[in-house]
Amino acid sequence: MSKKLSKTKLKCKGFIAAGVSSGIKKGAKKDLALILSEVPCTVAGVFTRNKVRAAPVVNDIKRLKRSKVRGIIVNSGNANACTGASGVADDWAVSIAAEKALDLDKGGMLTASTGVIGVPLPVDKITLALPRLQTALTKDGFADAAEAIMTTDAFPKANSVKGKVGALDVTLLGLAKGAGMIRPDMATMLAFIVTDVNIGRAELKGALRSAVDASFNSICVDNDTSTNDTVLVLANGMAGGMEVTSGGTAIKAFTRLLTELCVKLARMIVEDGEGATKFVEVRVKGALSDKEARKAAKAISESMLVKTAFFGEDPNWGRILAAIGMAGIHLDQEKVDIILNGICVARNGIDTGKEKDAAWAMQEREIVAEVNLKCGKGSAVFWTTDLGHDYVKINSEYRT
Amino acid sequence: MSKKLSKTKLKCKGFIAAGVSSGIKKGAKKDLALILSEVPCTVAGVFTRNKVRAAPVVNDIKRLKRSKVRGIIVNSGNANACTGASGVADDWAVSIAAEKALDLDKGGMLTASTGVIGVPLPVDKITLALPRLQTALTKDGFADAAEAIMTTDAFPKANSVKGKVGALDVTLLGLAKGAGMIRPDMATMLAFIVTDVNIGRAELKGALRSAVDASFNSICVDNDTSTNDTVLVLANGMAGGMEVTSGGTAIKAFTRLLTELCVKLARMIVEDGEGATKFVEVRVKGALSDKEARKAAKAISESMLVKTAFFGEDPNWGRILAAIGMAGIHLDQEKVDIILNGICVARNGIDTGKEKDAAWAMQEREIVAEVNLKCGKGSAVFWTTDLGHDYVKINSEYRT
Fold it and tell me: CA B361 to CA A392: how far, in whole Å?
């Protein structure tokens, strides 16, 4: 899979960006990105839950305690993780150098890193590239920036949404990196979102939490959580108008737009699974609670047995049921309905005899797997891939 | 990997066994096994924790409430899981038919099934094969039985240990099926152990729990728990002597022998990973408790990032540290030592610069990964494989 980004679509009022090669990656590949706002931005972030946190994560958490920031500098090729106290100092060195070069206040620049772990960050390469990075800054630079944050990604990931927040037109633009389940590597997931909405700090944080849960936290990327996982959103207020406050329709509208963008970016990450042949949407309803539905959807999405069956276009619903059985939720096996691309393969936990129809329906590239637990009103949606490599071929053909 | 079993080694006083083809599997492959004791046996079992349980598991839990049993009948090719009430009835039909054919008391025969899910058990094929199965019963039949319980296994798994329990010589003989992590399929793990020790019911159950925790529950087979996972141990007392009771040295000796056998069988399951090039022992010490050590060892053993690095013979200790960071245990990142095949690659959470030595040491087929958390006295051992397929090649070479 390969996708070209549209430079003209990727614009947001008052933001400029660039992506250049600093020599961290071999072969003059872009590995250094910068996103900058003309004016100070309200900022919110969500970081890895791993207890082992990379230096830029440790430092960004401190930087976010400031009220406003101006931008983000990101390198790929080196994660600056498991690098101890000198790694933390290296990360400060990068942000301070960038602040000086761009004439920003101290603490105005956030950082992010992705790549190999346990290797000292080549600070000199980054600082030497700063003048070129600065020269390259442009309103059209987001496609280059998206390319510069890639590691094992097969294609750069960026998107934008436009909509109304109150009476005002706003834009949200996002970049992401990360590759689907089937490519276990550094597995870092990074996403950077900029918007011209005028919004308070607490409101932005709340909207981001909600959007991330429904998007980046609802995909099966990998069973690992990286030391570097980071989602940042910067709002510069240049769309004008009154500040969006909590409780009104404006915050709902903004949260909806932010969620829409995050889902688009998260889906691009799922789609970037080398060898994946299917894009799978798992919908669970009828659980005791949304939380229980989420556990079931996650268990299905992560099950190697289920993913192997999707690859084999095998409507092996017993594997889906077994995955739910492991999820630690309330389950009445004799109530469960399972529907694959519209074909009900199990009703009340028993085979319906429609496996042939379902196998035919599963030949589509996109599979929607619906589960109704009939215990309550909880629901959830997850996105995952099949497990589509030659090595699982034998297993997926086991039944035929 | 392929292994031949020694028929002469696989014997236990008072037990006979057989394995034949009943036609459930294609191509006249053995798919029906029987283990029988001359006299009634004390029995203990450990079953899947999946809430979705196959019919033989549901029924065996009932059968185990009887005080004594005579044997186990096992079919491969059909799991009799997700088959509803008729599946439960089918399973009873098999055990009752076997009890009649062998002239046993009602409830004297345990069952187990492994294979595809959601398909009705072909009871007729099994009952038609019973006379041949009975004719084939012999003291040397355990190798055939081991073959008959295979599904995706690359080789049959059986072993025996001999030792002293008190003054008496006892034998423990075990069969197992299940294939390592890298082959996601039905993923059922079955193990059947017979012994001539004379032991009480509660003591046998306690010994089995302890042995299973240190063996089958300490391997990374798969992230799934099958609907059919079962470990059964039958003790017929024919070694003679007084009944082994709790609290003494005899029960300790027996538990040690049972654990030794279970570890041997569990290691065979780990070794049976198609494409796996490494057998990895993960040793964690210095945790706050054994339970926390176990969580860390499990997280390391299951991490796709760690397993990919093992395949690439890449001493990427940052991935090991990151896996521990996800384990939800007390962790002081700046205390952690990591040793790979004797080479200390990280001391106090910092690289020691010995990656080249470690890469060389990791060329061995067996890798011992030791982690010292230096927080307490808890320790644990886990066994896992690398993730050794072409599809991960790109990622494991990412650093080179």
Answer: 30
Asked if A293 and A378 touch (Cβ cutoff 8 Å), the reply is yes
Contact between B398 and A152 using a beta-carbon 8 Å cutoff:
yes
Strands B350-351 and B366-372: unpaired
Spatial distance between the Cα atoms of B92 and A360, rounded to a whole number of angstroms: 35
Token digits of residue B74? 């096992």
Q: Write out the E strands in B129-276.
A: 157-165, 168-177, 190-195, 230-235
Name the pTM for this structure.
Answer: 0.86
Instruction: Catalogue the E-assigned strands of chain A.
Output: 15-20, 32-47, 69-78, 109-116, 157-165, 168-177, 190-195, 230-235, 279-287, 337-340, 343-347, 350-351, 366-372, 378-385
Do A189 and A286 lie in a common domain? no
Looking at residue B388, what is its pLDDT? 62
Percent of chain B beyond pLDDT 70? Answer: 92
Choose the final residue of a domain: A249, A271, A293: A271
Locate A55 and state its tokens: 């230096």
- CB proximity list for B25: less than 8 A, separation 6 or greater: B31, B76, B77
Give the mutation candidate from B49, B305, B331 for the A interface (greatest A CB count, under 10 A): B305
Residues of A designated catalytic: 188
Average pLDDT over every residue of B3-28: 91
**What is the extent of the structural domain holding B286?**
279-396
Q: Give the count of beta carbons closer than 10 Å to the beta carbon of residue B350.
A: 17
Looking up tokens 């053995």 gives: B30
Task: Tell me what ipTM this predicted complex has.
Answer: 0.80
CB contact under 8 A, A395 and B226: no
Comparing CB atoms, the residue among B185, B318, B334 nearest residue A81 is B318
Distance CA B332, CA B349 (A): 9
Give residue-wise pLDDT tens across range A337-355. 999 999 999 999 989 999 9
Say if residues B136 and B19 touch (Cβ distance below 8 Å).
yes
Number of domains in chain B: 2
3-state secondary structure of B307: helix
Note whether A322 contacts B399, CB cutoff 8 Å.
Answer: no
Other CB atoms within a 10 A radius of the CB of residue B298 amount to 21
Domain boundary among A271, A302, A327: A271
In sequence order, the β-bridge partners of residue B173 are B160, B194
Given a cut of 80, is residue A394 above it in pLDDT? no
End-to-end CA distance of chain B: 29
Q: What residues have CB less than 8 Å from A208, skipping those under 6 apart?
A: A44, A45, A46, A231, A233, A258
**Does residue A265 have a pLDDT over 90?**
yes
The CATH code of the domain that includes A97 is 3.60.70.12
Residue A346 identity (one-letter amino acid): A
Which residues, in sequence order, are CB contacts of A32 under 8 Å at separation 6+?
Answer: A19, A20, A21, A22, A24, A73, A74, A75, A76, A126, A129, A133, A148
Cβ neighbours of B300 in A, within 8 Å: none
The yes-or-no verdict on residue A224 having pLDDT over 70 is no
Cα torsion B384, B386, B389, B391: sign: positive
Confidence of residue A398 (pLDDT cuts 50, 70, 90): very low
A82 min Cα distance to partner chain B (Å): 6
Q: How many residues does chain A have?
A: 400
Strand partners, B270: none
Q: Would you call A304 and B223 a contact, using CB atoms and an 8 Å cutoff?
A: yes
Does B361 map to a domain? yes
Strands B230-235 and B190-195: parallel
Per-residue pLDDT band for A306 (boundaries 50, 70, 90) equals confident
Known catalytic residue at B188 = yes
